[in-house]
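note to self: the first set is below, dont mix up w the second
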Amino acid sequence: MNGWVEGHMTKTIIIGLSCLWFLGCSEDGSNAESSPVASPTIQVAADQSLPADLQEGETKFNSFCSRCHGPQGQGTNSGPPLVHKIYEPNHHADMAFQRAAAQGVRAHHWKFGNMPKIDGVGPEDVTQIIGYVRWLQRQAGLF
């Protein structure tokens, strides 16, 4: 194959994969921004007590995140639920949460507006918050 054809095929493959990734980034392959509010969330089992090693993460979540993301990550009128299939680890890895807290994030799943960076929370704080959120997600059967 000559260089031009090879380069053209590579670009076509990259564009195709990018489109698939973009479409896969919404709940159902459509533009999820059109949803003005969070869809119903999955409830966390009430019979499970929070492990002691996650209590600090819960405290930090309540301080930094629950105002918008709601108690136990169930969402509010100001922010989406984190106990939702969109935020399970295979779709939003832990690094996505780190990046959102450190840099903010442009709205792309919901119509709550952009998330600002969270002042006063460091990477270790976010790691503890992620541990708590992942526990909530596991309790809800998301993974």
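second set (the one i keep forgetting abt)
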Amino acid sequence: MAEEKIFLDERGVKVTNARFVTYAKTHALSGITSVSTFTVSPSKKGPIVVAVIGLIAFAFSWIVALVLIAAGVAWFLSLKDEYQVVLSSASGNEDALTDRDQAFIGRVVDALNEAIIHRG
């Protein structure tokens, strides 16, 4: 039997010419027809509502208002997009891996595409 060729082995994720191993699951590359990325943007409604309540609170207490506005702004700035690796197969699409590091997800997708091409 031929030895597996490793295309990526980083942060607990491994891509070989035969399989794709994530933190919790192993996928056989033979069933994967295509790979893509998807970006999930978090809802920003919550922090905006908190900041607006803070603006309204200026009528009653400027200390409470400043705390609420600061909390809303901090919450808003802490929200980050998540990036997903989506595997397509004959049985449909599956979100195989999610991370906030866009470059890492890009390397995983590139490695998966190389492995699929290598597989033939």
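remember for set 2: Residues 61 and 89 are 57 Å apart (CA to CA).
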